[in-house]
Design brief:
Two copies of one chain form a homodimer.
Chain A lengths: L2 H8 L3 H10 L17 H16 L3 H10 L3 H33 L11 H9 L6 H16 L2 H11 L5 H16 L8 H13 L2 H12 L1 H12 L3 H17 L1
Helix pairs in contact in A: 1-3, 9-10, 10-13
The structure holds a DNA duplex.
DNA sequence: GTTTGACCTTGTCGTAGCGTCAACGTTTCT
DNA sequence: AGAAACGTTGACGCTACGACAAGGTCAAAC
């Protein structure tokens, strides 16, 4: 038998056969005078064994170990481990498909509706439609959600939750829209002070004090600084005025 | 933010961040005077999006397409296709685990008990314990099973089935043992002719005529030749005598 | 006699998603 | 000031082969 016949017999490519030679999975057979490899039936038997194990999902290295060690002990352990590995993969796939289904069920197809727990409610209810500012807010909240510990997660979602309640939602949405308008505005625009005032009135006390406290905290202050760097000039000015008002409110 | 902070924030390695730059998944940020990359919050947001999509199982190429195309149409299609792909993987894993379970359930852990249908019964009942010859026979039968078409499969299993029937099994086993003994024997050993005679008596008529017919057929004759090359000198002699007896029996 | 086509040979590059050096410069802590 | 911990680019390694390239060999067709 030459290599093509062997390969066709077992259902692999000749490249695969040579690769198995290279890896030592299949012994190199004798050569004919012209240099061709000449295979015998035992080679086909070994090759078929290798393929059966490979199709079960064993790596070629594992297969070589099994073939050389040869006595059942090794094989049994490897197979058990493989089964456990496959079980893990199965669970992972199920989890992924669940998140996928959740994503696809969401009509707006926002890729961040995959978070869990109470933050999910906030993200679900935060109005993202059309508002660049709200969209970015959502992303940042999602980022914080994955980056922060469980404690910070709950406190954060508690802080934001009032803004998403049915009574407050329309206002929240309106404020987002006005923030969007300030994207290209001048810092001296009269709408800036207007918005800061309305925003200060809209924010609940807990959020206001949390914000004021954040400025002086090293960790959260860092975050706030980074956040403010994403703002346009007018938006930043509104934020500055807002902070002044919140401090006076005490 | 420098690269380490960004990476820790999102939960990846700095190598990953740089790799995403290389692939164009994440824009290269501005550099500081010392050449360090300086990240802003938006970069973290984008990176987190990439990670969420990657953890769903999208390839980085697909993610780049989704990010650049950006409008939901693309994303939806990709996710649907991904889900289908995951479904296929799930089925594949289930199938593999089933075969694994079958393997592990088999106390002897023979890696060839993974075949299906009627050949499985033959393989199950063929005595493999201890006999090198029978073991090899099993492997060859398994090889034929996977290589042959469905028609040949059934005819083959029909041919072998009588040898595994409870009445005949002890004899079959004994003959295998005697074949093993001939591995290192001389072709002139008196046991050779003995065994050939008993074997001829043991083989059912159908198998005998099939064997005789095989010799003249191009295809099966090829197989027979390859098989006989695996025999030791004494075993080959027994086979030769057997064929003569079978032909005389007509 | 030669040309075609189907084989065979070795060798090298490419794949996906980074991990892991190497060899070097910068910042920061002590 | 020296060490530790960062940053930079560049290159190789991993899996299990596929897909070339650049040839040599062999049978059949012209």
């Amino acid at each position: 038998m030459r290599i093509g016949e062997l390969a066709a017999l077992v259902g692999v490519s000749t490249r695969t056969v040579r690769h198995y030679h290279y890896l030592g999975l299949l012994p190199e057979p004798d050569r004919l005078a012209n240099g061709y490899r000449e295979y015998r039936l035992r080679d086909a038997v070994v090759l078929a064994r290798v393929r059966r194990l490979a199709e079960l999902g064993l790596s070629l290295d594992e297969i070589r170990d099994v073939l050389t060690d040869d006595q059942g002990r090794e094989l049994r352990d490897v197979l058990l481990e493989l089964d456990a590995d496959l079980a893990r993969q199965q669970e992972a796939i199920v989890a992924r498909r669940q998140r996928l289904a959740a994503l696809l069920a969401d009509a707006e197809l926002r890729p961040d509706s995959t978070v869990s727990s109470d933050m999910a409610a906030v993200l679900r209810d935060l109005p993202a439609a059309g508002s660049k500012f709200a969209e970015f807010d959502r992303e940042v909240l999602t980022l914080i959600h994955t980056a922060a510990g469980p404690a910070d997660r709950t406190s954060f979602s508690a802080l934001f939750h009032p803004l998403t309640e049915p009574r407050a939602l329309a206002q929240t949405q309106a404020i987002y829209a006005r923030l969007d308008e300030l994207a290209d505005a001048d810092p001296g625009d009269p709408r800036v002070a207007d918005l800061a005032g309305d925003l200060a009135a809209h924010l609940p006390d807990e959020m206001a004090s949390a914000l004021v406290a954040s400025v002086d905290d090293a960790e959260t202050g860092h975050w706030l600084k980074m956040l403010s760097q994403e703002l346009s000039a007018a938006q930043y000015e509104a934020f500055r005025l807002l902070m002044i008002m919140l401090k006076e409110r005490r």
